[in-house]
Design a protein that fits this description.
The structure is a single chain. The protein has helices at 13-26, 43-51, 59-83, 94-104, 109-120, 135-149, 163-179, 193-204, and strands at residues 2-7, 32-35, 88-91, 127-132, 184-188. By secondary structure, the protein is an alpha/beta fold. A 5-stranded parallel sheet has the order 2-3-1-4-5, with helices on both faces. The radius of gyration is 16 Å and the shape is globular. The structure holds thymidine-5'-diphosphate (TYD). Thymidine-5'-diphosphate binds at residues 9, 14, 36-37, 51, 66, 91-92, 96-97, 100-101, 155, 158.
């Protein structure tokens, strides 16, 4: 079982994912929780490059770095876990590339879909939660978190983008999710974390019983 979590900065997907992992651990489920970018050994330096606010990366170079990160992540981490029968939960996956590099940076979405297909060798999640939130609220949350963790420069490249970019990303996610509604569940991320978790868990728990 492969499940991904998507959303803009500060949408709360990290928080809800942690809560889901906590609940699964309580139930004794042997699962794998991972993330992109940076979910493999090769991915750690790639993540540092991609999220560094000081880097200027052209959209196509950025695209291929994300795809390289994903190809390694799938082959080294995700597929082996699935093959061992472990459910896999990923904080971001291929939909992030479609939305950020496609809707956000203006690269061609059908081409991105094909390149992703190749990078992941056909492996798409069976269920994807989209945590939807107004960018103004999400960005304020992300800014506070980055300031608290001292991440403003090294992990702040996307947070530093103009508000219009984040609005485009939010719209892109909603459009993409509507096109793939069989796999996406859109969750209102502006509510308190407990409420968001409850809704997500209601959808997930039957799959684990
Ligand atoms: P991260 O710190 O994981 O952000 P968040 O906590 O919001 O998940 O940073 C991931 C950033 O990388 C995020 O701004 C989205 C971007 N990204 C892409 O542009 N394309 C991709 O394929 C992926 C996986 C992430």
């Amino acid at each position: 079982m492969f499940i991904s979590f998507e959303g803009i900065e500060g949408s709360g997907k990290g928080t809800v994912l942690r809560a889901v992992c906590g609940r699964l651990a309580e139930q004794g489920v042997d699962f794998l929780s991972t993330r992109e970018p940076g979910g493999s050994d090769l991915g750690a330096p790639l993540r540092a490059l991609l999220l560094d606010a000081r880097q200027s990366i052209v959209p196509r170079a950025e695209l291929f770095l994300y795809l390289a990160d994903r190809a390694q992540h799938v082959a080294q981490v995700i597929r082996p876990a699935l093959a061992a029968g472990r459910p896999v939960l990923s904080d971001r996956y291929a939909d992030s590339t479609i939305v950020y590099q496609g809707y956000g940076r203006g690269l061609n979405v059908p081409e991105l879909f094909r390149l992703n297909e190749s990078a992941v060798d056909g492996l798409w999640p069976e269920l994807t939660f989209l945590l939807d939130i107004e960018p103004e609220i999400g960005l304020e949350r992300a800014r506070r978190r980055n300031a608290e963790l001292g991440l403003s420069v090294t992990e702040g490249r996307f947070e530093a983008e103009a508000m219009s970019f984040h609005r485009t990303i939010r719209r892109g996610y909603l459009d993409w999710a509507a096109e793939h509604h069989e796999r996406f569940r859109v969750i209102d991320g502006s509510r308190p974390p407990e409420d968001v978790f409850r809704e997500v868990w209601d959808i997930l728990s039957p799959r684990f019983s």
